[in-house]
Specification:
CATH superfamily: Alpha-D-Glucose-1,6-Bisphosphate, subunit A, domain 3
CATH class: Alpha Beta
Number of helices: 4
Oligomer: single chain
Order of helices and strands: EHEHEHEEEHE
Largest sheet: 7 strands, mixed
Distance between the termini: 26 Å
Mean pLDDT: 95
CATH topology: Alpha-D-Glucose-1,6-Bisphosphate, Chain A, domain 3
Length: 149
């Protein structure tokens, strides 16, 4: 796994793709968030949505993320290219959706990409983002079968 710790910021996870994080990191992030949701969520097989922005790196990141999520028991609904508010909206509009991840570099240059994450209809920040990092570093992942659609 290749990543620089500085990408775990206060309100998101973000950095220069292929320099500060790679696709293996993305897959492990998916497994970490799945484990987090299964620990803190209301079901053992949560459903989440994954959206992305228009950056060229976003589709490959989404595929690695979905793989990691589904390998740890999450049912992933890919919602395609959307805005960040649309991604968050899915957690309010569909009661079965227990979280969302938006793959986006936000306002940063094209070489950047990252993740805005919500559990339930609340965004993860601060200690909760650091908890994802701790799960990843410990490799303490849930083992369950999920799906991608």
């Amino acid at each position: 796994m290749n990543f620089e710790p500085v990408i775990f910021r206060e309100y998101d996870i973000r950095g220069v793709f292929k320099e500060q994080f790679d696709l293996h990191f993305v897959e492990l992030l998916g497994r970490s968030f799945a484990t987090y949701l299964r620990k803190h969520g209301s079901t053992s097989n949560p459903i989440i949505t994954v959206g992305h922005d228009a950056r060229l790196s976003s589709p490959s990141i989404v595929q690695s993320l979905a793989k990691g999520l589904s390998e740890s028991g999450v049912h992933v609904k890919l919602i395609g290219m959307v805005t960040t508010p649309m991604s968050y909206y899915t957690t309010f509009a569909f009661k079965e959706v227990e979280g969302s991840i938006m793959v986006t570099g936000s306002h940063n240059p094209p070489s950047y990409n990252g993740f805005k994450i919500s559990a339930g209809n609340k965004t993860l920040f601060g200690d909760k983002i650091q908890e994802l990092r701790q799960i990843m570093e410990a490799r303490d992942f849930s083992a369950a079968e999920g799906s991608v659609e």
